[in-house]
């Protein structure tokens, strides 16, 4: 029962990664000034969000196994 909050946190992290990725892909597809200024920053945030999601996932697995 104590792993449910971690599951919700994991779902939120995955959703955040998807939103950041969609924003980056959309900006890349559209091109222009937004992509030129924000493209690299958005993809850096995606990598950070993915690392956090993986850490939460590993924590969730560890809690479930114990």
Automatic annotation (TrEMBL):
Membrane-spanning intervals of the chain: 6-25, 45-63
Q: What is this protein called?
A: HIG1 domain-containing protein
Which InterPro entries does the record associate with it? Answer: Hypoxia_induced_domain
> Does the UniProt entry include the keyword DNA repair?
no
Pinpoint the HIG1 domain residues.
Answer: 1-66
Annotated keywords: Membrane, Transmembrane, Transmembrane helix
Q: Does the keyword Cytoplasm apply?
A: no
